[in-house]
Amino acid sequence: MNRYCYTYQSVIESVGEMLDSLQSILTKHKIEGNLASAIMLTASEAFTNALIHGNHQNPNKSIQVDIEINPLTVKIEVIDQGSGEIDFAENRLLSEPMLENGRGIVLMKHYTTDLQFSKIKSGGVKVSMRFDRTIEYES
């Protein structure tokens, strides 16, 4: 098992930094194609949600990203320092499909093998994503 832990400042430039780090890790572990694309897209959505909705782009707050890779799975946790609000926008999408916000959660559910949102004791939200390396991902 390989584990990587990063902490990013809550500024928009951190999105690119996180994606660069993640791409480097995926390349190192020879994770490519549709699986790599699914991981990148989903991690980007979770990170952007943490930045905008969790930390409200407060540069004094940070976002932690933990990545665990083994032969069967890739696990990613994105943890913000927000107020612990968990807005399950997917429920609103069922009744209001043209909403501007909330589609990222539906997208994340589509591409992950397992997706969980939890409040953390110190405040904030942890998004836990798992990807099964043994299945074929759609483009």
Quick tags:
5 strands, alpha+beta, 139 residues, 27% strand
Molecular structure report:
- By secondary structure, the protein is of the alpha+beta class.
- 39% of the residues lie in helices and 27% in strands.
- The protein contains 4 helices and 5 strands.
- The protein has helices at residues 13-28, 33-54, 89-95, 103-111, and strands at residues 2-9, 62-69, 73-79, 114-119, 125-132.
- Strands 1-2-3-5-4 form a 5-stranded antiparallel β-sheet, with helices on one face.
- The chain is globular, with a radius of gyration of 15 Å.
- Mean pLDDT is 89; it is low at 89-99.
Give a summary of the structure in a few sentences.
39% of the residues lie in helices and 27% in strands. With 139 residues, it is of the alpha+beta class.
